[in-house]
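If it is no trouble, can you show me the amino acids of a protein and the C-alpha cells describing how it folds?
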Amino acid sequence: MRRARLLAGAVAAALLAASCAVNASFPAPSRVESAAAPQPYLAPEVLAFLANEVPPPVTDGSPEAAADLRESLRWTALEDSDRWRLAQTHAEVRPHLAVQHFDCPLNTRLADAPPPALLRVLGRALQDASVASNAAKSVGFRPRPIAGDPDRRACIRVDDDLRASASHPSGHATVGALWGRIMAEVAPDEAEALTRIGEEIGVSRAVCGLHYPSDVAAGQALGAALFEALRETPDYQADLVAARLEVAQARTSGHLNPGCAAERSALGQRPS
C-alpha cells in the first residue's frame, strides 16, 4: 500500500515536472536503442524511482546464489531444442521485427505491415524499459552465466561487451513483461496468451544462458511496475486507442505466421 502511494505521488509529480521541463536527461542508451530512439512515456523521476525499487542481485556465495545457479544449469538441457531456437527469436527487440512475437495469439502476421501506432507504443515503452533496467543494473554488478562459466553456451552470438555486462536485472525480461501487458490491453480477448508471451521473452534469457532466473524475475517485476506507471500517462492512452484499431484491422487480413505450430511446441518445453 505504501509503495503504491509513493508510486502514485512520483507519477503525479513527474507528469507535472514534464510539462515544465523540455530537456530531460536520461541514463546512457542501451544496446537496443538507436540514435533516433523515441522518447520514453515516463519522466526521469518516475524511471529513477522504479529503478531504485529493484532489489539488488543475490549475494555471491549465498544459498540463494547457489539455488539460482542450479536452476540456471537446468536450462542447459534445452540447448538446440525448439525452445532454444525460440529463445534466439526472442532476442530480437527492435519493434518493427519484435511484433512477430505476438502474432500467434492474434492469428495474424504483424511484421508483414507493422502497424505504425503499435510500433510507436512498443518503441516508447522499450525506452522506458531500457532506461529503467540500465539504471537498476548499477545497484550491484552480477556477471552473466556465460561470463561466470566460460564453457556455457549462449543461444546468440555475443561480443566481449555483452559478455562483460551486468546480468541483473534482465533488460529483455523487463521489456518483455512490459510489452506483454501492453499487448493484452491492445487485444483484451487474448490478454492471457499475450501476457504469457511477454513473460516468455524473459524466460528465453535464462534458456540462452544470458541471465540467471532471479535476474529474469527481477526484470519481469520491473516491467510490470513500468506498465502500471505508463498506463496512467495521456500519451500512452492516446497511442493505445490507435494501436487497438490497427491491430483489430490486422487480425482481419488473413495473414498468418507459419511458425505458430513450432512456437506452441516450444513453449511446452521445460527442463526436467
About this structure: The radius of gyration is 18 Å.
